[in-house]
Design brief:
2 helices; UDP-N-acetylmuramoyl-L-alanine:D-glutamate ligase; six-stranded mixed beta sheet; alpha/beta
Amino acid sequence: MVAVRPPPAAPTWADSLFTVGVTGTNGKTSTTATIAALLATVGRPVARVTTVGSFLDDEQLEVPGQYEGFLETMRRCVAAGGRYAEMYAAWTEHLGGHDDAESGQMVAAPATG
C-alpha cells in the first residue's frame, strides 16, 4: 500500500468561494468553460483552473502549473471580489498518486499553461 499524506488544511478564504468541480473522461475543458461562463452571469470574476491553464474570467494567468498555481488563482479571484470558481478535478490515481479511488481524494488538475 502506498503511504498518502493527508491533504493540507483549507486556506482561510476557501469558504468564500462557491466551487464547481468537473470530472470525467472527455469534454472537461469545454465543460469547465461553459460552467465558468454561466457563473459569470451571476458574478465576476470567476476563477477557472484546467489542464490548459488558470484563468480569471477569460484572462489566462501566469501562475505555476501545480498546487501553488491553483492556490494563487483562487487568491487572486477572492482579492478581486470573486465568489465563484470552476475547476477540472481528477482522482489522484490519474495524476500518478494514490491508487485507491475509494478514499475519495480529489485534487485540482495541474495546469500546463
